[in-house]
UniProtKB/TrEMBL annotation:
Chain residue ranges for the region called Disordered: 1-36
Organism, as annotated: Streptomyces nanshensis
The keyword Zinc-finger belongs to this UniProt entry's keyword annotation: no
Residue span, Thiamine pyrophosphate enzyme N-terminal TPP-binding domain: 132-197
Name by which UniProt lists this protein: 3D-(3,5/4)-trihydroxycyclohexane-1,2-dione hydrolase
InterPro entries for this protein: DHS-like_NAD/FAD-binding_dom, Myo_inos_IolD, THDP-binding, Thiamin_PyroP_enz_cen_dom, Thiamin_PyroP_enz_TPP-bd_dom, TPP_enz, TPP_enzyme_TPP-bd
């Protein structure tokens, strides 16, 4: 990807540099330079980078998160002060780039998703005054990355945040967040401090000594979880490294975590930087079109299919292809099932939407998948949850057609590949089919719409609250939220049993309402990600309601960024569901012969195990101590009122509720497809022996699609 040259702007409003750079070939003029430290130069460079897609520009790096230590305080820290973050600078957090879509619509027809288009022109593009780099203060390095990822996802991958840390533990705390970003193809720029390049003392504080390699530091842990990694050991090396970093961040096929490791001495070293380095650059976000031969093969495959099924993945959302997908289904009547990342590609009430697919999916989607003769994957990676560990697509004649922007994913399951942007590819496929009179048999349409209606009855039963004085179940919590939210609300979750319940039951009303991170399924993602989402939507007159749904296990993993929400006065709506343990893994443990070992939060009992009374932990009091306004709910009726109050709150608010669990009352519909968690092949305990018998029965259905 080549950025737009500052001397050749792409539109009339694009600025030219205040000082026109001298041609590299010129020998009669002196090249203009600017003396800055490496850190100052990097921040000045980042503040002038933009993305552009479909004629709209966005600031690429709109803010920098940071926790400072000796490895970055005098480098990046000082550079951020230079960039306009001095004490008393009241507009330091003018994040920009986020006029979010209103998503105000209501429909249940074939013709559109009517989601609207997101808008945003970036932060100060074209301004003659130097753009500023807002600073955000975090409490945990991993959480800062999660917040940046939440921001990037909500911004359509067109804008991102940077994250700076010190060396040592601050840097290694980035690894989990980096893995999450890369797995989910979401851009984040990591700027960990590194050990001295000049090695004046060896070792320095927090240095890992590696006897066989003098150039290794703990930052090398970030290599396998980064889409691009470089260690900037000389000031001038920053120029190519920074340009490559921007290229990867803005590339829709390659994007993910990008790491520039910055030795602490190099950060503070001055250099005469060419003025051209600081010119505004626009990085086009490509929409590659499909190859003609691949498109023709795809058309033939669709036209020959009698029971086709679309599997919509996260690529639909990243491409902004929801409307195009709706148009394709309107023309063909092909049903659409969604992965966790793809849920919301169609509204829940769209006739073609059959809900989530796979282990956590609906019965409707599961049965369609088992009988499909053509599976059309759009922007999906086909994880084991989607394919039910290779057991879901049972039809002996099933074939796959994968529309994906990466060849790696397009070729999965021995598919016919259609390597293209999801929006561009769907437009091309719709156009190519238009003149060939393809539409699924009306009987097939009647079949799946009837099954969809039957599943909705099960959803209603799960959400029902016949006794307003009872302690609510987890699905009743979701049901009460369902009655309260509109297209404006955003729900964030990542781990525990909630993703399964949400995937099966939640009625997504807008393209971005359903924000479940299930690529890495990282406990502790929800609260910081909600902060990132709020930052991406705060340019609106009235902030959108953003809900972070967590269990007690997830809350205890990573509650620290509550303090950040309080500090920034962001209207976070946190819902804590207390069930005294790892309820999700407890259920899985029971199913695979683990007998719920080690999954309850209880005192030790007489038998030495964790079988005593529940621990006297008050998470509501803890949340209040961190600055949240806390609403406690003990009954269904209490919870209904608390959720309504939280939704209207203008500051950060928490709703705390203890829930009944499926082992005490009826729960949500069970899993509609299998998931492979290997069970002990030999064991003496009856629970494990029985679980292995069931495992052997299920695994026999696995197939490799060739």
């Amino acid at each position: 990807m080549t950025p737009t040259s500052p001397e050749s702007p792409t539109s009339p409003e694009s600025p030219t540099s205040a000082e026109t750079p001298t041609s590299p070939a010129s020998t009669t003029r002196t090249r203009s330079t600017r003396r800055l430290t490496t850190a100052q130069a990097l921040i000045a460079f980042l503040a002038r980078q933009y993305t552009e897609r479909d004629g709209r520009r966005h600031r690429l790096i709109s803010a920098t998160w940071g926790i400072f230590g000796h490895g970055n305080v005098a480098g990046i820290g000082q550079a951020l002060v230079e960039a306009g973050n001095g004490i008393g600078n009241g507009d330091a957090n003018a994040y920009g780039n986020t006029n979010a879509p209103s998503n105000a619509h209501s429909h249940s027809d074939w013709n559109a998703n009517a989601y609207g288009n997101s808008d945003g022109n970036g932060n100060g593009y074209g301004s003659r005054t130097p753009p500023r780099m807002p600073y955000l203060q975090g409490r945990n390095e991993q959480a800062m990355v999660h917040a940046a990822v939440g921001y990037a996802r909500q911004s359509g991958r067109l804008s991102a945040h940077a994250v700076t840390t010190s060396i040592g533990p601050g840097a290694t705390n980035l690894v989990t967040g980096a893995a999450l970003a890369t797995i989910n193809h979401l851009p984040v720029l990591l700027l960990p401090g590194d050990i001295f390049a000049t090695r004046p003392a060896d070792p320095v504080l927090q240095q890992l000594e590696v006897p066989y390699a003098g150039d290794v530091s703990v930052n090398d842990c970030l290599r396998p979880v980064s889409r691009y990694f470089d260690r900037v050991t000389r000031p001038e090396a920053l120029i190519p490294a920074a340009l490559q970093a921007m290229r990867v961040l803005a590339d829709p096929a390659e994007t993910g975590a990008v790491t520039l490791a910055l030795p602490q001495d190099v950060q503070a070293e001055a250099y005469d930087w060419p003025e051209e380095f600081f010119a505004e650059r626009v990085w086009p976000v490509r929409r590659p079109a499909p190859d003609a031969a691949e498109l023709e093969a795809a058309v033939r495959a669709v036209r020959s299919a009698r029971r086709p099924l679309i599997v919509a993945g996260g690529g639909v959302r990243h491409s902004g292809a929801e409307e195009t997908l709706a148009a394709f289904t309107a023309a063909t009547r092909i049903p659409v099932a969604s992965t966790q990342a793809g849920k919301g590609s169609l509204r829940h009430d769209h006739p073609a939407d059959v809900g989530g697919i796979g282990h956590t999916g609906t019965a409707t989607a599961g049965e369609l998948a088992r009988t499909a003769d053509l599976v059309i994957g759009v922007g999906t990676r086909y994880t084991d949850f989607t394919t039910a560990s290779g057991t879901l697509f049972e039809n002996p004649a099933v074939r796959f057609l994968n529309l994906n922007i990466t060849g790696f994913d397009a070729h999965k399951l021995a598919a016919l590949p259609l390597v293209a942007d999801a929006c561009t590819g769907l437009e091309a496929l719709t156009s190519a089919l238009a003149g060939r009179s393809y539409r699924v048999d009306p009987a097939y349409e009647t079949e799946y719409t009837g099954a969809k209606e039957a599943w909705e009855e099960r959803v209603e039963a799960s959400f029902a609250t016949p006794d307003p004085t009872a302690r609510p179940t987890q699905t009743q919590v979701l049901g009460l939220l369902d009655t309260l939210v509109t297209e404006e609300d955003i729900l964030i979750n990542a781990a525990g049993s909630l993703p399964g319940d949400l995937h099966k039951l939640w009625r997504a009303r807008s393209r971005d309402q359903y924000h479940v991170e299930y690529g890495y399924s990282c406990m502790g993602y929800e609260i910081p990600a909600a902060i990132g989402v709020l930052l991406a939507t705060e340019a609106r007159t009235r902030p959108r309601p953003v809900w972070a749904l967590v269990g007690d296990g997830t809350y205890l993993m990573n509650p620290t960024e509550i303090v950040t929400a309080v500090q920034e006065n962001l209207p976070l709506k946190l819902v804590i569901l207390q069930n005294h343990g790892y309820a999700s893994i407890g259920g899985l443990s029971e199913a695979v012969g683990g007998e719920r070992f080690g999954t309850a939060y209880r005192h030790r009992g007489p038998d030495g195990g964790f079988t005593g009374p529940p621990l006297p932990v008050d998470l509501a009091a803890n949340a209040a101590s961190l600055g949240l306004h806390v609403l406690r709910a003990t009954t269904v009726d209490d919870l209904r009122k608390a959720l309504a109050e939280a939704r209207d709150a203008e500051g950060p608010t928490c709703v705390y509720v203890e829930t009944e669990t499926p082992d005490t009352v009826s729960g949500p519909p069970p899993a509609q497809a299998w998931w492979d968690v290997p069970v002990a092949e030999t064991a003496s305990r009856p629970a494990a022996v029985k679980a292995r018998e069931e495992y052997d029965r299920q695994v026999a259905a696995r197939r490799r699609h060739l």
